[in-house]
Amino acid sequence: MKQKTMKIMQQEVDDYIQQFKTGYFSPLGQMARLTEEVGELAREINHYYGEKSKKASEQPKTVEEELGDVLFVTIIMANSLGIDLTEAFDRNMHKFNQRDRYRFERKDGQTEGDAQ
């Protein structure tokens, strides 16, 4: 299967949404949905890695499935607000590579003092 770029994923989600009369929900409605999906992800993480095991009556879901839901809703929100997620990602990585370059102990042993 060919790897998808974020641009392709954003277009695919837009094509899906455009087939419905309601189109995109309001940003506040989308935020509520994103919060719901993140809660479901947290629940799955707790079931797999935490102390709270699933009840026998609960539907089997996976962390992968819930992460996919979070990604889908994130793309919906970005599309509705006209945000190019590739550009947003690139800006964030630049920020983290600058601001947090020495925040954690590095494998190469470099420290902020070495850069000066």
Automatic annotation (TrEMBL):
All copies of domain NTP pyrophosphohydrolase MazG-like, residue ranges: 27-104
Protein name listed in UniProt: MazG nucleotide pyrophosphohydrolase
Molecular functions (GO terms): hydrolase activity
InterPro entries in the cross-refs: MazG-like_dom, MazG-related_YpjD, YpjD/YvdC
Signal peptide span: none
Keyword Kinase: no
Phylogenetic placement of the source organism: Bacteria, Bacillati, Bacillota, Bacilli, Lactobacillales
Pfam families hit by this protein: MazG (PF03819)
Keyword line: Hydrolase
Protein species of origin: Enterococcus devriesei
